[in-house]
Design a protein that fits this description.
Elements (H helix, E strand, L loop, with lengths): L2 E2 L4 E3 L4 E3 L2 E2 L11 E2 L16 E6 L3 E5 H8 L2 E5 L6 H12 L1 H7 L2 E6 L3 H11 L4 E4 L4 H5 L3 E4 L4 E5 L1 E6 L5 E7 L8 H13 L1
Parallel strand pairs: 8-9, 9-10
Antiparallel strand pairs: 1-4, 2-3, 5-6, 6-7, 6-10, 8-13, 11-12, 13-14
Length: 202
């Protein structure tokens, strides 16, 4: 049986717990990540968001293209989180789920993004009963393109996503960017909703 480490570390403010889950053979995942950007730079308000195509966990395994989504779903919210099945990340995704109707009413489309496999993200999505889809950056292309890669040197874990939120408008520009170096800090959900409303009002 093939096993992969998914959601490599469960962290909270008080403890660390390893999580190992079974995953199907990688050759079953035929969708690859492609990023159209040059090497990463700090992404800030007004910058063009790096476009990409990546595996999508939506109950099945599909493909997500940012450029295609912007044509019909803008503004698009990309919520990067360090790892599935972890305490703070689970709480963050549940907080977003609790406000998903408010986000939609404001005009936005939400996607969570992590380095976990699409198989793991589907299980994570099911366990939390999330209605929004999750993007798999299993090859760590997106965290590099959006400059949100982070190492946890103390525990020997490298190249996870920082907790970050980007709101991208219909022109592909980043209208809101929030990035935290502390994985225990969650975004300001009111600010995310307001950023969507500001785009819709323009």
């Amino acid at each position: 049986m093939f096993f992969a480490l998914v959601g490599p570390v469960c962290w909270s403010r008080t403890r660390l717990v390893s999580t190992v889950r079974a995953a199907p053979p990688w050759e079953d995942c035929t969708t690859v990540i492609t990023v159209s950007s040059l090497p990463s730079v700090v992404i800030s308000n007004g910058d063009q968001a790096p476009t990409f195509t990546a595996p999508l966990a939506n109950g099945d395994i599909g493909s997500f293209s940012l450029s295609t989504a912007l044509d019909s779903e803008a503004p698009v919210v990309l919520a990067f989180f360090p790892g599935a099945f972890t305490g703070v990340c689970s709480h963050e995704m549940q907080r977003f789920e609790a406000r998903i109707e408010e986000l939609a009413d404001a005009g936005g489309s939400l996607y969570g993004v992590s380095i976990d496999s699409p198989f793991a993200l589907n299980e994570f999505r099911d366990q939390l009963s999330l209605s929004f889809d999750l993007i798999s950056d299993v090859n760590r292309e997106l965290i590099e393109a959006y400059d949100v890669a982070m190492d946890f040197d103390a525990i020997g874990v490298e190249n996870l996503a920082k907790r970050a939120v980007f709101v991208v408008d219909g022109e592909g520009a980043v209208s809101y960017a929030w990035v935290s170096d502390d994985p225990g800090v969650e975004p300001d959900y009111d600010e995310v909703v307001e950023a969507i409303r500001t785009i819709a009002a323009d």
